[in-house]
Design a protein that fits this description.
By secondary structure, the chain is α+β, with helices and mostly antiparallel strands. Helix content is about 40%, strand content about 20%. It has 14 helices and 21 strands.
């Protein structure tokens, strides 16, 4: 029997808060427990439901059901309609992101001090198994904690985290608690569902005490994780954004993982940081040369004895400017200048254009999706994106390479050259005795 007074013991539910309720058995049991615990203070808890319109009339039914059950128990109710496009992959992640962002915004607006969800012991085991399969490191293996901070002023509370699903279902039957079934839970389209349907039952069949062992393990790892987080935080605060390699490699590996994880997140990396990311960055740190790499939206930069994670500055990819023969032209988004000067062709790494092929107006701009050209020495066209890959040009540099384009009413746009990299074969110099145009970025 689940006792509401012991379930909420130790969570400090003073002050207003909110609870996310989907209508499933876990959240409806939590709603009933809250109703008993806050029997005389219903207005201090707001019930929140998210309607993502993913299951048509079934989603409408869920929203109506939760609204009715919440009203019957006397709690304030908020429903958020946020349609998510049905597409392969990413649906659950997108829904989770919307729930998190909306809940934090609501809490800030309404002064909530805590948010509650109905995650239970089976959810915890599924999460740990999924993170293990992904290679998520210590933070992933510690799973979810009963209390975590969403912001410095907002706690996320999971009071059912140590209760197995079958106990919750038994309680719902005993107490005649109504709930709805989410048909998508039967689908194998999602990784969590496959773990729930196949992997976890297999593990429990082999080791019936697995849920209890997971509970113990996650508590131990959560404690260790806090130690390593503290060590990583001390280094990050000491270095003020630039991390010294010598200090970094004095840390134990789990603390180094935290430094990398926090750095990537601070730089705008939106995905879960996995062991593969950590190993890749550690490999880069051990190289002797300076380098830069883009991880999602985060720019990683290593300079001699330091490294850092940066948010790349805003870049206007639509910028373009006309060119009118030889001269010096400002490339304002790059704070650089394009120099075009008439010179005799010289062999070497410098880039020369055949002026005899320039019959129409010229512009300079940046690469655009679908751009193609004929690299020097080739016959067929090639996508710029494929050329950049073949030349191993880092992704964070590709969008800022100036492209000189000839615009013709009859032929449309023709790429003349990628400044600093390659000439289009059509615009190559063929008469070495005639004047040519040298193109360079300064």
């Amino acid at each position: 029997m689940i006792n509401y007074s012991s379930i909420f013991q130790g969570f400090n539910l003073d002050g207003p808060g909110g609870c996310l309720v989907s209508g499933g058995v876990d959240s409806m049991v939590l709603l009933e427990l809250l109703s008993r615990y806050f029997s005389a203070e219903k207005n201090s808890v707001t019930i929140i439901h998210f309607h993502f319109h993913l299951r048509g009339k079934e989603s409408d039914r869920d929203e109506k059901f939760v609204r009715t059950e919440t009203s019957r128990r006397g709690f304030p109710f908020l429903s958020f309609s946020s349609p998510i496009e049905k597409r392969k992959g990413g649906i659950q992640e997108k829904a989770r992101e919307i729930r998190r962002e909306t809940t934090i915004r609501l809490a800030r607006e309404k002064g909530w001090q805590w948010i509650m969800t109905a995650h239970q012991a089976n959810d915890q085991a599924e999460t740990v198994l999924m993170n293990l399969l992904r290679g998520a490191g210590l933070r992933g293996l510690k799973g979810m904690e009963p209390v975590t901070l969403l912001t410095p002023d907002l706690k996320l509370i999971r009071p059912l985290l140590e209760i197995p699903r079958f106990r919750i279902e038994e309680f719902a039957v005993q107490q005649k608690i109504s709930y709805v079934q989410d048909s998508s839970n039967a689908s194998d389209d999602y990784c969590r569902n496959r773990v729930r349907h196949y992997l976890l039952p297999f593990v429990l069949n082999q080791h019936p005490a697995f849920l209890d062992d997971i509970s113990v393990m996650t508590k131990v790892l959560a404690g260790e994780n806090r130690i390593y987080e503290s060590m990583g935080n001390d280094l990050l605060q000491k270095e003020s954004g630039m991390v010294t390699l010598d200090d970094y490699f004095l840390l134990p590996e789990p603390a180094r993982f935290f430094v990398i994880e926090k750095g990537l997140k601070k730089g705008g990396f939106k995905k879960q940081v996995l062991s593969s990311h950590f190993e890749e960055i550690e490999g880069l740190l051990k190289k002797k040369k300076d380098l830069r790499r883009l991880f999602g939206d985060c720019l990683f930069e290593k300079r001699r004895s330091h490294f850092s994670f940066l948010i790349p500055p805003p870049f206007d990819s639509t910028w373009q400017a006309p060119l009118d023969g030889p001269g010096l032209y400002s490339i304002s988004p790059l704070n650089k200048k394009l120099m075009i000067q008439e010179k005799r062709f010289e062999k070497g790494s410098r880039l020369f254009v055949n002026p005899q092929q320039l019959h129409d107006s010229l512009i300079v701009r940046f690469p655009r999706p679908g751009d193609r050209f004929i690299p020097f020495g080739m016959q067929g066209t090639k996508k710029l994106s494929d050329f950049f890959t073949d030349q191993k040009i880092p992704r964070f540099e590709r969008h800022s390479i100036p492209v000189i384009v000839q615009q013709s009413e009859s032929r449309g746009e023709e790429i003349v050259c990628l400044v600093g990299h390659q000439i289009d074969h059509k615009f190559r110099v063929t008469d070495y005795s005639a004047p040519a145009l040298e193109v360079s970025l300064i």
